[in-house]
Design a protein that fits this description.
The chain contains ten helices and 13 strands. With about 300 residues, it is α+β, with helices and mostly antiparallel strands. The protein has two domains: about 230 residues, 3-Layer(bab) Sandwich (Hsp33 domain), CATH 3.55.30.10; about 55 residues, Alpha-Beta Complex (CBS domain Like). It has a six-stranded mixed β-sheet with strand order 7-6-3-4-5-11, with helices on one face. It is globular.
Length: about 300
Amino acid sequence: MSDYVLRILAKDSGVRVLACTTTELAREAAQRHSAYPIAAAALAYGMTAGVLLGGLLKVQERIALKVEGGGRLGKLVIEADAYGHVRGYLSAPDASSGESLGREAVGDALGREGVLTVVKDLRLKNLYRSAINLEYGELDKDLEAYLNQSEQIPSLVEIGVVMDDDRSIASAGGLLIQALPGHGHEAVAQVAARLEDLPPIENLLSDGRTPEQIVDQLLGDQEYLLLERQPAEFRCSCSQDRSRQALRMLDRDDLLALVAEGEATVDCHFCHARYFFARSDLEAILAETQMATGDEDAPEPA
């Protein structure tokens, strides 16, 4: 289990803690998108945020976050679920990197003026959607602001990414601390004070500290219960069948144009998997849509 997330309950401290390591899944995301160094670092922050947010979900729930900060990396989109699965992409993974790859440089590349949007699928009739203006231009701090303002749960978020000398991802991980019901900001503030006494999380990660060791240092002699140690991995939900369904949503004229071209390829934004459809596949999809709409008199494909 190379990447994983811990779910911890510290009743005496009045908080719950999520701690994760995400190095391998961040590397996979960067590799799939052929990301330049600054984009790879931004993806690592985003993928780690997704794992932490996913750790707050219940079974079968999903969450998506979108950062539109106006920077040269364009839009950052991350999706995650309650099982440690996460995927994501940037609009401009080939954006120029510059010399620095630290958190301030990543914030500049994503942009510091825009919106952070969070959408949750809680298995209810309607999706939950909330958006806040970016305040800090650093994903962990803006995510913390979202949790405190929109969800009104006293929270602390720390994400660390370390880039290697060859400008690839050396390590990535993070912490999310929230007050338990019946406890307020003071509970999180006490843990935050202890966190201030520790080296920055990126230093802990680069020193090889595991999530367990970081939590031990953070909580000290406070007793806590480890609820779960769950694997975390890059996983995309795209498939040939989902791509086929997407083609079925096209207008008849668009499908006719694809049939005329003789083939179609669907490229997944999240993982860059490619799904090929031959002319015969497209003709079958066109026939299905015509039957579904009752348009049986439509012209036969050429």
